[in-house]
Amino acid sequence: MNKLLLESGKYLNPSGEAVSGDIGIENGKILFCGVKPAGWQADEVIDCHNSFTTPGFVNAHTHAAMTLFRSYADDMALLDWLQQKVWPAEAKLVAEDVYWGTQLAIAEMLASGTTAFADMYFFMDQVAKACMETGMRASLSRGLIEADGPQQDQRFEENEQLFVDYHGAADGRITVMLGPHAPYTCPPECMKKVVAMAERLGAEIHVHLAETQWEVDQSMKKYGKSPVAVLNELGVFERGAMAAHCVWVSPEDIEILAAKKVRVVHNPASNMKLASGAAPVAAMLAAGVTVALGTDGATSNNNLDMLEEVRLASFLQKLNRMDPTVLPTRQVLALATQGGAAALGQADSLGKIAPGYKADLAIFNTTAPHWWPQHDLASMLAYAANAADVSHTLVDGRVLYRNGEFTTLDIEKVKAEAGARGLRLVK
Ligand SMILES: [Zn+2]
Question: pTM (2 decimals)?
Answer without folding.
Answer: 0.98
